[in-house]
Write a structure and sequence with these properties.
The complex is a heterodimer of chains A (378) and B (293).
Chain A lengths: L11 H12 L6 H14 L4 H12 L6 H12 L17 E2 L5 H9 L1 H16 L1 H18 L2 E10 L4 E2 L1 H10 L9 E8 L2 E6 L5 H17 L3 E6 L3 E3 L1 H4 L4 H11 L9 H10 L1 H7 L3 E5 L9 H13 L2 E6 L12 H6 L5 E4 L3 H9 L8 H8 L1
Parallel strand pairs in A: 1-7, 5-6, 5-8, 8-9, 9-10
Antiparallel strand pairs in A: 2-4, 3-4, 6-7
Chain B lengths: L5 H4 L3 H10 L6 H13 L3 E5 L5 H12 L2 E6 L6 H4 L1 E3 L1 H11 L12 E3 L1 H7 L4 E6 L6 H13 L1 E4 L3 E4 L5 E6 L7 H6 L1 E5 L4 H11 L5 H15 L9 H16 L4 H7 L8 H19 L1
Parallel strand pairs in B: 1-8, 1-9, 2-5, 5-8
Antiparallel strand pairs in B: 3-4, 6-7
Helix pairs in contact in B: 2-3, 2-4, 10-11, 10-12, 11-12, 11-14, 12-13
Classes of the chains: A alpha/beta (378), B alpha/beta (293).
Chain lengths: 378, 293
Amino acid sequence: MRPGESLPHPAAPFLGFARLLRHHAFAIAPEQVTSFMQAITLLGPRSMNDIREAALATLAPSPDRRGEFEAHFRAYFYGDAKPAIEGEEDDETRVKDDRGTREEEKQTIRQEKGGELSSALEQLSSRDFQRDANGLGQFRRKLSAALPARRSFRTARTRSRGTLDLRRSLSEIVSADGDIPSPLLRRRQAVPRKLLLLIDVSGSMKLHTADYLKLAHAAVQGADSAEVFTFSTRLTRVTSALRIRDRGQALARAAALVDDWDGGTRMGPTLLAFLSVPRFSAFARGACVVILSDGLERGDHSDLETAMRRFSARAFRLSLATPLAGDPRFQPATAALRAILPLLDDLVDGSSVGSLTDFILSLARPAPAAETIWKRVS
Amino acid sequence: MTSADAVEVAASPEAIAERLAASRYLADDSLATAIFLAIRLGKPLLLEGAPGVGKTEAAKAVAELLGRELVRLQCYEGIDTGHALYEWNYQRQLLAIRHAGEHEIDIYDDRFLIARPLLQVLRAPEQRVLLVDEIDRSDHEFEALLLEFLSDFQISIPERGTIRAAKQPIVILTSNRTRELAEALRRRCVYHWIGYPDAEREAEIIMLRSGDVAEATARAVANAVQEIRARSLAKPPGIAEAVEWANAATILEKGGSPWPQAFRRAIGVLIKDEEDLSAIAPELGRIVEEALG
């Protein structure tokens, strides 16, 4: 029996509404649809408003997207004009994960497509290899210990400095027939937080992307929990390419993966696309998120603001490293930067690998919010 | 009052709104519907909203309307099973072993088990309502643990086996949205976003909640608070603060301050952030004048 066949005919529109919402990237589970229909049955429904209330309560759109949800509801059930959101569908940001496509990508390196870029990268990496190698090598070794830690929910046995593990001690006593051996201790483990690097590879960042990727490679090598994405007009996950130990190879593979080198900047929409993939946005939860970008958003910056707000709600610490801040006269004066400044924990200089590694290694130390620092400067 | 049959109480959203009003909680249609659906569908109710919009109060009112005891689990960073589920009273166990001497003793008896909120509710689902307050403050490991509890309503104690709820308990979760909750948790719940009420409803709430505030004062406070919330403040005033402001101004007025001045002098109970205070200070006089009409 196909699903839907057993349903009475009048129930079909509700299924259709859930399907419409899914089509517009609302995450709606089958069990939510079931409770949506149960709710409608329970409520009567006596009016359209009952259906609306049932939809709001059971399909649970997030408050940020409430307006969009209402627009879809009106369009679907009242047949209003199609909501304006639909028009944007064409330029939906493409998201690419390097897993699964790897075999295919491997070949393209040898073919014409990525060749030029990767050789350019190799040139860059060989040019100042000597100087970088020391700095980044040190960075790689120090990183894992330098990342901020969180206390895990799990406890581990320990010989000193812990609380009494009464549960284990007691079972020990019981098995020893009431004899009291030395008490066992336990302590909550400290786990390093995740590090998420989002690298802007658009045209305006051309001078820095090669350096940033080398830094990202060192980060992935140094910390188990680091994730790296690149973005300009699209979003690409390059973490597993960077897992290769040899830097030249890793960078060449990453370079081949990224299709939008030196493209335009669509920072807001791409970051939103990142957040809309649940597996990706889980990387940001409780993590140190470092965005390496000049923050130059063309046109409307409301998307960027929304994305940053969501990031700051998820992340442990949200930082923006911009090469522009290398200039001592730099001020966060553009409209986009001014709008996101209150959401940032740090706004730092990203003009050189040295300043960036220093910053990332200092993530565990508390610092005043970006807004406070930059207000004082201006 | 014995615990009323939940289905009987929750006959319709209107019946719930009425009973909530009797427990001095004014709910709008949407919240009453969400409570109705949560009770009837047997799902947990997730309330989200800015601080001070009355999420915890709503849970208290629901417990009162069902005639049940409210068991509150306040979340914080680092909360673990020992605080949420159960713990053995090890000291007593050890004493009991000493005491028993040669006799056989069951040290995993009920008297050695300390029931924490989740277990308390499982044991008497028809007499208790569980409130998991400010879930956004806990770590995500705890969220996962809660997820398991909320889907099966059972707790496994290795020494005792699995304890299941005889009936599905009523659970209310609240979140201030300082971080986003896992999708799985939202999915499993009936969801309601509590916003700030409009001026008229807020005036009603102020009159219901405060001691002896005149209707005109309540209206003026509601209007002024709406106006203040429209500005971008670090901490917009909640409903509780508005009620306190009305109370404080009334007391000052009885002490001899004329009206606009009484409001201005009592502003400290409404806005509790230094930067917000200095931002609003130059306009406060005008806002109060306008609100008084």
